[in-house]
Amino acid sequence: MAYLTAPEDLGDLFPNEPSYRADQLREWLYRTPVMSTDDMTNLPTAIRESVDLWPFEVEIEQSADGGRTRKWLFRAPDGAAIEAVLMGYSKRATLCISSQAGCALACTFCATGQFGFERHLEPGEIVAQVAYAQAFMRQIGMPGVPSRVTNVVFMGMGEPLANYDRVRESIRRMIEVMGMSARSITVSTVGMVPGIRRLADEPWPVYLAVSLHAADDELRTSLVPINKRYPIADLEAAAWEYFEKKGRRISIEWTMMDGVNDTFDQADKLAAIAKRLRAHVNLIALNPTPLSDERAPTRLHIQEFADLLKRKGANVTIRDTRGRDIDAACGQLRVLSGKSRRDS
Ligand code: SAH
After folding, report:
1. Does ligand 1 come within 6 angstroms of the Cβ of 257?
2. Each residue of 64-103: b (16+ CB within 10 Å) or e?
3. Hey, what CATH topology would domain 54-326 get?
4. What is the model's pTM?
5. Site to substitute for ligand 1 among 155, 210, 212, most atoms within 8 A of C-beta
């Protein structure tokens, strides 16, 4: 579980060895990750055997989309489920990671929210998801995809800004130790206003995605309960502050639900918010979840909604949905495995 030790403290793992051994291990963990300590060729066997690498086991690994989508359900020793999904494209490989096991925010349409909160993930558990995917890309890879993780998005399980300090430390390790650029990292939030403000004061210009889903407070509170505490006007002010301080375009995530937030009235209001924030809107077709009856609109209707936003002057993309046949979306893995810490 070497990833649970801060990279600067790795020497503590073998106090009787010269310090360059810790430097070598740090290289393997963060710069050129490998699936197994057997692959750490410049370390003596005794050291390799003494290092317990991953802070979790791989419980489920599945592949879809011609091998260009890969999902993992990792299981920590205490039973906590950690899921990550890697999506490969011709010029990039985007890894979607989890920041918490479960989530306390209870957005009605989100599978993770429906199953409640288990615990925060440690910085090492967050960064190990990235290292694992990095090792996978270096040593196994995907057909026609660059052989490294190029982008990381905090869009797996959990609310990253509700686990601020640990997420911050994981980002620090990705940037300062792994050598990733801040521009390759996106923090996606349900709208934790204080967290957005803190993130704006950090030294790294990571991208911010705001999961908006509704453009008036009444509808948004019914979908995203935390909106009661941080209503849209406050969220918009914090997002604008982030944009101004960081110079990074905000993205607005909008999960499309048939008959709920796909009306022309919502499009109108959404376009106004997006234009004020100079944000980019990502439309995502709802992935159905066990405890909600909501459905995605038709493909045609999503296109009409997007066209309307464009006509109103907003920037918009319809996000492709990867890995549907393997339940790779949003908290679905744990549902599939049928276990959570509480009932295991
Ligand atoms: N808590 C953070 C990050 C995790 S959710 C956030 O809310 O942004 C990542 C994204 O997936 C969010 O935009 C979320 O709204 C979206 N999402 C959640 N459940 C979904 C579902 N069933 N179908 C489609 N998108 C979903």
Report:
1. no
2. bbeebbbbbbbbbeeebbbbbbbbbbeeebbbbbbbbbbb
3. TIM Barrel (3.20.20)
4. 0.95
5. 155
